[in-house]
User: What shape does this take?
Amino acid sequence: MKLFIPNMLANADAGFWFPPQGSTVAEHSDSVYFFILYVCTFFFVLIVSLMVLFMVKYRHRPGVEAEKTSTHNLTLELSWSVIPTLLTIVMFWVGFTGYIDMRTPPSDSYDINVIAKKWSWAFQYPNGWIESELHIPKGENVTLTMASDDVIHSLWVPAFRTKMDVVPGRYTQEWFKATRAGEYPLMCAEYCGQKHSNMISKVIVHETRGDFDKWLQQASDIHKNKTPVEAGEYFYKSRGCIQCHSLDGTPKNGPTFKGLFGSERKFADGSTGVADKNYIRQSILEPQSQVVAGFRPIMPTFKGQLTDQDITAIIAFIEAQK
Amino acid sequence: MATVVDSSDPKSNFPIQYRELNYLNCSSGWKSWFFTLDHKRIGIMYLIGVTCSFFLGGLFAVLLRTELLSPDRVLMGPDSYNQMFTLHGAIMTFLVIIPGVPAAIGNIILPVMLGAKDVAFPRMNLGSFYLWMFGAAFFLAAIVLGGLDTGWTFYTPYSVTTSTAVITALLGVFILGFSSIFTGLNFIVTIHTMRPPGMTWFKMPLFLWALYATALIQILATPVLGITGLLLIVERAFHIGIFDPALGGDPVLFQHFFWFYSHPAVYVMILPAMGVVSEVIAVHSRKHIFGYRFIAYSSIAIAMFGFLVWGHHMFVSGQSRVVAVIFSAITFSVSIPSAIKVFNWLTTMYKGSIRFTTAMCYGLAFIFIFSIGGLTGLFLATLATDVHLHDTYFVVAHFHYVMMGSSLVGLFAAVHHWWPKISGKMFSETWGRIACLGVFLGFNLTFFPQFLLGTRGMPRRYYTYLEEFQGLHIMSTCGAYLLGLSSALMAGVLIYSVYRGKKAPANPWGGASLEWQCSSPPPHNNFDHPPLAGDPYIMESVVYNEEIGGYVPVECQGDNKQSVTASGDKEA
Ligand code: HEM
Ligand SMILES: [Cu+2]
Assistant: This one.
């Protein structure tokens, strides 16, 4: 719905209030915002000017009495009940129509699966390829089908003015149509623990569908275009390992990868083992089966999100961290 | 110089201004306080408890804001930050704002306003204070036993899986809930059964209407919070699946339960403050309140509609679209009664004789801040905009405008308005007003930038943030320092007055409700005979008396030689 209200400030570039509008939804959402803002500003100015006027005019002065005025006035009181009511009905209506659009994914859309976990995003494209950044083509409807591995997260792209919780145990959906190519922040908006504020990624909007397809083609051929160590490093950075495992020897939420390969491991249950290829593979697929002593069992599983070839590359990368 | 008339002066025909023996000194020793059944002493103990909690919560706030000066580490790591914002929120909500006006000020003033000797159930009243202490102790225990990092909202499944002291904190919430229910029950029964001759429902001061509406919410909504807390405890302790999907539960169900209490609870926080402002504006403008019935009904309307809007906290939670639409529609209906009140207060000031006492300054600050708080609620009630704004600093700013800027400023107004009655002393108006100005400026500087942070893309509960937000965060932090210093100054001014203040007359501001008729501070049993109640807003019924430095009923003044006008000036 195109609004009859002028879009002051809500131009395509960042205004005083908002980041640049990047989606079709943003245009509507901002015009609703400015409509409410004008109404509210009017009432706020009215209230405060009356207040200040009365404060000055009726301040206590020697010899001047408070004047007895009538203590109620039905017309007055009804009018300041009814006029705001009518205005809120309009607000409700414009908000409602916009919301229904936002929450009804169009049937002809490009589908991407999203898996949120503490504290990273995984975007899975129709060909199975997974990335930690969201790439989409401009001018095309994109629908995200989202699931969470652990607690509630919420996917928010401020430039698109749209947000949806990602709830464990069910799927939620969010859709948009990007209107400008570029990079925009994408973040988690529902508090999810220690690194909630690091759960920031990017949306990259490609100018054309052709550009996007080319990118996807190249990205998913990673094993052809890169050595296993390079590919492993890519997964390390893009799938969230980096959040908890350092390369410089400092323990974070998980043990460091430096000097890990081939070392002796002590587990929480008292047993020991050697960090060989099978150990690393199992740690990625069933992280809770062997928890290293001194760490909490918080690592999520990557089963189904990394192929055998990907895991082999990661092992090569860890092996290279002497 | 005003002299204060003591009961020992038999020649005076004025009401007794001050008694040697009052509720503060009629007995002494710690037992006389800890086992007291006197509503005023219980109220004072609440006030002290609330003040301590406020400064603890405030200390956390200042540390949080300091951390946010930079996106990098300033004072603490993310774990401490998360625990600190959780405790800040939980302490401010459950230990400060919910008991602030009703339990502390309400306890002291409600029976006196009714011309009664005490509340209906004095023992239960003391019990509710001990429950409050007990609940607060559990909160402190939670800090020691590993902290709490769930946010004050305890959202599942995070709260089921975190390793912090969730059970201890929930037990605290459970116990505090009972404290709140007891106070509510007591107030309802007291208002129903103990009104003095002449005080019909529509002759009650509006503060009592507000407390009545609040009490209704307290007893109807709080049990749901208690049960929700218990369910969560059961789930954590025995791994029975209720809210955690890993155990077969439903995490969104928790949000429904939680907000079914917590939304009405925001009205527990604001309604009493609105009641305070109705009194303060009328008394310090020396005007009859405008639209008494509309204000009274709007309190009840807010209390009732407040139960029907909880789903507006869940527009992006995955609840069905139809449900979201219904909740949005009903949410707008709560904003109307709030608007009505604001216009009624303004009209009350019309043609008044406004004194800028400290209490009035807080009252005016309330109108300014509450207007912003209430109006920004409209952006959140509107579905299309809430999707962007939910869980951002915009929401943080909105609820601080209503909770801190309105509820707490309402409490400040109440404390200053009734301080002469409570303590028997006058505080320095000059310093009081300076503190008020500091609170007002500091508050707006802290929270206005947060609206912008929210619309521009800053989520709440973030330890670190994108570079571009640093400027606004620094502004906000500076405001927080000013706010902190000013509230400390306010407390200092009041505490100083206890030791060095002038003796207060019975009626320093010219109020016409019953609490101004007994001496300051009131004697142990408030009134020797139940007073006769009339319209509590006929300000002309009292006139200023130079000799006393306060207001006295017109009929007494007639005998006095000095002739004074109703607004306190000597007639030329
Ligand atoms: C004029 C009436 C008001 C309206 C229309 C309104 C509307 C809303 C809406 C729709 C939300 C949900 C926003 C979101 O989570 O996305 C919200 C949040 C909130 N409001 Fe209000 N509100 C009003 C007044 C108040 C008052 C008087 C208080 C308290 C004294 C209050 C306290 C809160 C709190 C604490 C939250 C957020 C809670 C949280 O997520 O932690 N509101 N408000
Ligand atoms: Cu999250």
